[in-house]
Design brief:
Rossmann fold; 2 domains; homodimer; globular
């Protein structure tokens, strides 16, 4: 391994952890609107075969191919596990706060972990192009980079409101060589229909997913679809995060049984699952009593206020229906800065864990989230992505309970990305222009 | 050391390397316009005493205080040494290309290495506030963060053109808690004078330095001044980069005598010195024959076309005069995106090395530099800062000479920062709107 000095390839796991066989109940089958159960083969038009196999797999551990491990190493995995000592001191807490920092990955967030896996398998299977959606752009930029690295074209439908207001993520995707269209776009019939109804349509993640899928269906087999969260295989790829964290904590003398809280933000659930599922492996076997806290924005409360029912993954209803906590596939989220958390549903696996009270959801407003983000930046130097700042806020609230306490609980959270391309939100907060949604 | 698992504190040097006693000739004294030689005491009004001591020191190694090493570790030092394998393959070169990646530091560039040292010593000496200038904002954001970490206020005069066109760096400084004024500002008499002459004055780095110094002089002893490049003590602090790189290369089986080229971009000279001076330590002792390449923009050609003479460090003439390669302190650089390279002079120590042909300067135009930056992003995942992209361009040109060669020279360069807050320049390049200055 000549890639990088001071790197620790031994901390990188050899397999992803698939939580599906360990869940307290089976994930209800994906169905069509008429109730037909979706078979794996029906997914082959959309996804690479290996990804479909992983989606429906009951294997507990799925081997990471060696070539893919190389990509992980090149991108800077294992990512650092850091202790937030300055935050601990500021809060005057006895809690020990550790965080996994995924923002060191080149596109700036955890999304690269699955982006490179999806690009890799699609390339292996001869796919020429990937089509996807993106909200604020973290997923889109990760897939654009992954496509550039493995040599596969990437087309991104970017929610029009973000496309117009936040050009930097769009430029980043273009710098990586991707084609980026504002969604609704004029290159799909669904997009054209929406633009006809409203030429200034701001778009949504659900709409962008619909467009990407339509684009794939009409590509004559040249393109496949790529999704950044929600599905099993996507969450699976993120489990490198938690597996590394467990080994890194061990090296610091913290056993998995010593971890009191695991905290993360939830959009579709992928960064959360990435950190939490490897810890849940032990919890589900009764070996730990870790509390799992999942944080969402009050403005998009799919876990705390959504219904658990079958719903579409997209707005047009092109995807199968998944049983999940959902606000409805036609839910229009307010324009909060945490674009990655503006999705109407959450992963089916995470929904089940919430139902069984193994994961505790909590919701926060935007102002208190940015307040936490600014505090973290000033104390620890890293400006958190608005999504990740939700986790920071929850960690602060937990840590404050242990002020002058004899207990020294360990809190671990996922700082899933940096906020350097989200500074507009920080400016609004600093200048009191941020609506408290 | 409980800070961070998978970190290698043993790679962090215990001392900075001071090249001054090893230079082929003495640095000419700093003088006043009337020829008076500036004594160290005359700097005490501007700088912390320890920094003045370092500025005039002849000690070859200056110990890094333990508390400061802790800050370096917390910020993520040692930074990774990476091999650009994809770039090598793409260029079909036999050269081995390694780079030190300083963009992982929290404010996104190498500037943190001296910012935290300067903030640390000023805090120790009871200084309440630091005043400084910034162009594009890398230096200003590093000092803002350093000030926040050690608990010292920071005031930044930001070149007005950048302040207006690139709000993100300004927001980053404010997120870290700094006060940021567009320069020329209304809070200094020099600024007011310039605004009276031209209310739309775009400002320059030289003007911003003048304002920061005036601000310090009028602070009644409360504030000190902080500079991001050029001076000996600033370059000194950056030598952690090259010292780490030498150890990291050794671990990969590359001895310092195997290094054929050391490449970096030059504004005032600090990132360049940071990587190159520890390698020059061996070159100056005849132990290696490494070629040192220093890259500057064709639009600001201080090394390739400037004169070697006494000049002021700022526009108003408030600083002492330094003997250096300069375009003149009233030189108005064109508005290239590499804001960190828009300075009229270069460090006196680097000027001497250029005079003695120990360092070879080369200049590039902006379009070819961004072309190299885009190529690097697509192949290696990291978007280089426009400043660092100058180094990338030179490395590509060198590596191309070893196509199908039997020689396998080692090229080491400094990727001093990421370009995530400079994507506007990349957009102009991608859309053919970048002037080829």
């Amino acid at each position: 391994m000549e890639l990088r000095s001071s790197q620790r390839p031994d901390l990188l796991p050899k397999s992803w952890y698939n939580i599906v066989p360990d869940l307290p109940e089976k994930i209800p089958p994906y169905i069509l609107p008429d109730g037909t159960v979706v078979k794996p083969e029906m997914f082959h038009a959309l996804f690479a075969r290996e990804l479909v196999r992983q989606e429906f797999s009951d294997e507990r551990f799925i081997k990471i191919p060696d070539e893919l491990s190389e990509y992980y190493l090149q991108a800077g995995r294992p990512t650092p596990l850091l202790r937030a000592r300055n935050l601990e001191k500021y809060l005057d807490t006895c809690a020990r706060i550790y965080f996994k920092y995924e923002g060191v990955l080149p596109a700036g967030s955890h999304k690269f972990n699955t982006a490179i896996a999806q690009a890799f398998y699609n390339k292996l299977e001869g796919v020429k192009r990937l089509s996807t959606e993106t909200g604020a752009g973290q997923w889109g930029s990760a897939l654009s980079l992954a496509g550039s690295l493995v040599g596969i074209k990437v087309r991104v439908f970017m929610v029009r409101a973000s496309y117009n207001q936040k050009p930097f993520r769009r430029i980043l995707m273009e710098t990586y060589g991707a084609e980026v269209y504002p969604s609704p776009s004029t290159i799909t019939s669904f997009g054209r229909k929406l633009l006809q109804e409203n030429p200034d349509h701001p778009g949504s993640l659900g709409i962008a997913i619909s467009e990407a899928i339509e684009d794939v269906i009409n590509s004559g087999g040249e393109a496949k679809y790529s999704l950044g969260s929600v599905l099993n295989h996507v969450l699976l790829h993120q489990t490198v995060i938690g597996q590394e964290a467990i080994k890194q904590l061990e090296e610091l003398g913290v056993g998995v049984e010593d971890v009191s809280y695991v905290v993360g933000a939830v959009g579709g659930g992928s960064n959360y699952a990435g950190l939490a599922y490897p810890f849940l492996y032990y919890r589900l076997r009764g070996k730990t009593s870790t509390v799992f806290v999942a944080v969402e924005p009050r403005a998009v409360p799919s876990m705390t206020r959504g219904e658990y029912r079958y719903d579409f993954g997209d707005t047009a209803g092109l995807t199968p229906m998944l049983k999940m906590h959902t606000l409805g596939h036609d839910f229009v989220p307010p324009p909060i800065h945490a674009g990655g958390l503006r999705y109407h549903g959450v992963a089916p696996s995470l929904s089940i864990l919430v139902n069984h009270k193994l994961v505790e959801p909590v919701a926060y407003g935007q102002r208190e989230v940015f307040e936490a983000g600014v505090l973290f930046a000033r104390l620890q130097g890293i400006v958190p992505a608005p999504e990740s700042a939700h986790a920071v806020k929850a960690v602060i609230d937990i840590a404050r309970r242990y002020r002058g306490s004899c207990e020294r609980p360990v809190i671990v959270f996922n700082l899933s990305g940096h906020g350097l391309l989200d500074l507009k939100g920080y400016e609004e907060y600093l200048y009191n222009a941020l609506p408290d949604t």
